[in-house]
């Protein structure tokens, strides 16, 4: 099941065939949404007390029968909607009231979870509100429902502490601690039947929605309601075989009609345990996801997790920088808006500058809304791209489960500079998107505890020390981790990803599944070392040629012949483009003209230390060892043995080497740099203040002329 947000641009009146534009259609949908919000808010406020929440939590009515799962039916079984009549002079059909009651029931049922947490915290209120003892934590955990994170406990404790500080006593419950929840202007069409709404699919890209909308803000009779036919353009994320369900209508601040269209398709159920190949991902700031592949090997108690050591990195540096900049701009606009509003309130309406300040407030509010919309769009795009990448990596590597760290299990210990950027990431949306896409691919998604994943070494479980990264030696040492026990040195997020995949695979039998949402979690921590298995080397061209030479039959003596070739290749005749050779008298002793002989290879020259060898280049102290073309484009580069120091002479790289580096640059995004044979730079001299536009050729050295005195 998933929900796609579509947009309704226009409609048609079914009775007359009149076309309804977007502005008029938005106005009529707004009438129905505002009416629904008013009735839902009144019903929630009427039943916002501890007795009503106790009845909902018990799940039985006055006769002792279980309440139905549908919210509007449960509300009518309890006779609660009778407390909220329709507005005077407004006609509201029974189907519209169904949507109102369903919205109110969902809102009240969501409050039951918060109520249970508040009740447990109040029942075990500590002697010191700022710090609980071990016994107080144990008593609190016994009363809390399953799956409550430390962040929820901390937030509710702060809320109760603030109430006690202001009122001098503890609250009696959630209804005293909080007011009635706010409801949004939206219409839940799913609770209505065919007398109010119908939906069917026209083709693979279009769906037709028939809904009865009010023609006025306060419809007095049934004649003030009319059927509207709205064609909805389906996005590409909805498969042609997906089943469409009744949507929800809501007007947006941008002046559009949002249609939240649920759709479902059957997928294969994923198993909670029994996985052998998994992917573990660690959250980061710029590298939003850093993962690694883990494989479970060994029988019984001798099980261990091995990895190939290859990191999988989703680098979101560019979009993270844009989001960070937009957040700063948003806060700046909000501060200016509040400043001008305070100035306007201080001056008052008779003052001549009062209206100018209010105009500035309206301009800043519009700009603030646009920046917020931009941030939302970037967050959604980032979440979709990262989730798609993670699932594609799992499918390509044959993993059957993805392990993510549950950041809700962490509790803050102080503040540091990067917390603002960490809290601004879209990790919740990204995790939900990964679960949705992984379910389509038949891959399970499980969260594991995050405490200590970056603290210990995945190879020996010793404490890691942090050092500056090799590419950023001038920065503080937090990104790069080093182990003094086993000598492991790698990226900190990559080391954490190894421990995450190890925790998931070793504790997969302790996986728990939440009944309502289907979210899978591992709360048991099992720490073990992760073994590193070397990846098999790729078959290079030289190795393939060597294997072919060993297995191929011996070639017969004589000139090389190919299919259709009956005679050897004739010698190239001498001409103007033939290679010129030196006379024998001018050649160096021991020189061979043919480059095929062993003596014609490049003779290595020794460096002053006499330890490292380098290819012979343009050296002014030693004579040239070879003649003919210099190794460059089209000529194989000389083979270098041992360590490869910087050559003293400039040598052209072979065409094969240039192609390899070009392909590497296209793959990694870094331009290749290499030295080529270039002419030395000629200094340009000239008279001071002379003509600065010089030709390509270097001018002759300027010599000051002798001045003659007259």
Summarize the structure.
It contains 14 helices and 24 strands. The protein has 710 residues and is of the alpha+beta class.
Structure description:
- The termini are far apart.
- This protein has 14 helices and 24 strands.
- Among the domains are: 2-264, no CATH class; 277-316 and 380-413 and 421-532, Ribonuclease H-like superfamily/Ribonuclease H (Nucleotidyltransferase, domain 5, 2-Layer Sandwich), CATH 3.30.420.
- Mean pLDDT is 76; it is low at 414-424, 584-654 and 664-710.
- The chain is globular.
- Helix 1 (22-46) crosses helix 4 (94-123), helix 4 packs across helix 6 and helix 8 runs antiparallel to helix 9.
- 33% of the residues lie in helices and 16% in strands.
- By secondary structure, the protein is α+β, with helices and mostly antiparallel strands.
- Strand 11 (277-283) and strand 12 (287-297) form a beta hairpin.
- The longest helix is centred in the middle third of the chain and has 44 residues, at 354-397.
- It has helices at 22-46, 50-58, 71-77, 94-123, 134-143, 150-167, 174-177, 317-347, 354-397, 419-423, 427-440, 492-506, 541-551, 655-668; strands at 2-8, 11-13, 19-20, 187-188, 197-203, 206-214, 225-233, 243-244, 248-251, 257-264, 277-283, 287-297, 304-307, 312-315, 401-406, 444-449, 464-467, 480-483, 489-491, 511-513, 520-522, 530-532, 605-606, 613-614.
- The strands form five sheets. Strands 11, 12, 13, 14, 15, 16, 20, 21 and 22 form a nine-stranded mixed β-sheet that branches.
């Amino acid at each position: 099941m998933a929900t796609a947000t579509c947009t309704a641009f226009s409609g048609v009146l079914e009775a007359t065939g009149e076309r309804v534009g977007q502005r008029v259609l938005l106005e009529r949908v707004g009438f129905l949404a505002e009416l629904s919000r008013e009735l839902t808010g009144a019903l929630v406020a009427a039943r916002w007390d501890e007795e009503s929440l106790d009845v909902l939590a018990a799940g039985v009515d006055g006769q002792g029968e279980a309440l139905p799962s549908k919210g509007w039916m449960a509300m009518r079984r309890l006779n609660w909607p009778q407390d909220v009549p329709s507005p005077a002079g407004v006609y509201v059909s029974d189907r519209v009231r169904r949507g109102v009651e369903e919205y109110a029931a969902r809102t009240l049922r969501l409050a039951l979870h918060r109520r249970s947490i508040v009740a447990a915290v109040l029942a075990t209120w500590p002697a010191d509100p700022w710090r609980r003892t071990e016994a107080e934590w144990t008593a609190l955990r016994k009363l809390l429902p399953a799956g409550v994170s430390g962040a929820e406990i901390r937030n509710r404790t702060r809320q109760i502490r603030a109430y006690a500080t202001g009122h001098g006593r503890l609250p009696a419950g959630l209804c005293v601690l909080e007011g009635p929840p706010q409801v949004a202007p939206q219409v839940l069409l799913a609770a209505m039947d065919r007398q109010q709404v119908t939906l069917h699919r026209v083709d693979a890209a279009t769906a037709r929605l028939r809904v009865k909308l009010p023609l006025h803000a306060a419809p007095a009779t049934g004649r003030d309601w009319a059927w509207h036919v709205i064609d909805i353009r389906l996005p590409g994320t909805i498969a042609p075989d997906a089943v469409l369900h009744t949507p929800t209508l809501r007007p947006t601040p941008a002046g559009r009609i949002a249609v939240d269209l649920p759709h479902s398709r059957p997928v294969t159920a994923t198993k909670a345990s029994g996985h052998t190949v998994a992917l573990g991902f660690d959250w980061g700031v710029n590298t939003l996801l850093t993962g690694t592949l883990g494989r479970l090997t060994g029988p019984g108690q001798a099980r261990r997790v091995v990895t190939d050591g290859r990191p999988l990195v989703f680098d979101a540096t560019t979009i993270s920088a844009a989001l960070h900049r937009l957040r700063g701009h948003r806060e700046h606009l909000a501060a200016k808006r509040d400043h001008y509003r305070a100035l306007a309130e201080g001056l008052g309406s008779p003052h001549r500058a009062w209206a100018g300040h209010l105009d500035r407030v309206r301009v800043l509010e519009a700009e603030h809304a646009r920046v917020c919309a931009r941030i939302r769009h970037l967050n959604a795009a980032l979440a979709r791209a990262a989730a798609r990448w993670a699932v594609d990596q799992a499918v390509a590597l044959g993993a059957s489960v993805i392990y993510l760290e549950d950041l809700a299990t962490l509790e803050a210990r102080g503040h540091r500079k990067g917390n603002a950027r960490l809290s601004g990431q879209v990790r919740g949306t990204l995790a939900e998107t990964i679960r949705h896409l992984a379910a389509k691919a038949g891959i399970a998604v499980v969260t594991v505890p995050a405490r200590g994943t970056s603290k210990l070494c995945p190879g020996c479980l010793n404490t890691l020390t942090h050092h500056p990264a090799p590419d950023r030696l001038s920065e503080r040492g937090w990104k790069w981790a080093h182990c003094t026990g086993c000598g492991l040195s790698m990226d900190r997020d990559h080391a954490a990803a190894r421990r995450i995949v190890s925790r998931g695979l070793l504790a997969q039998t302790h996986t728990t599944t939440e009944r309502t949402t289907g979210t899978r979690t591992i709360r048991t921590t099992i720490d073990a070392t992760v073994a590193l298995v070397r990846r098999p080397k790729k078959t290079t061209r030289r190795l393939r040629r060597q294997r072919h030479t060993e297995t191929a039959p011996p070639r017969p003596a004589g000139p090389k012949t190919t299919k259709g070739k009956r005679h050897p290749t004739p010698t190239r005749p001498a001409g103007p483009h033939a290679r010129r050779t030196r006379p024998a008298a001018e050649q160096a002793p021991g020189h061979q003209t043919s480059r095929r002989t062993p003596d014609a290879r490049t003779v290595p020259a020794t460096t002053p230390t006499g330890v490292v060898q380098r290819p012979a280049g343009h050296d002014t102290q030693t004579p040239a060892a070879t003649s003919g073309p210099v190794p460059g484009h089209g000529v194989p580069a000389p083979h270098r043995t041992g360590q490869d120091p910087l050559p003293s002479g400039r040598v052209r790289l072979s065409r094969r080497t240039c192609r390899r580096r070009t392909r590497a640059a296209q793959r990694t995004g870094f331009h290749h740099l290499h030295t080529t044979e270039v002419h030395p730079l000629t200094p340009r001299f000239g008279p001071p203040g002379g003509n600065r536009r010089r030709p390509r050729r270097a001018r002759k050295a300027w010599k000051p002329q002798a001045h003659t005195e007259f």
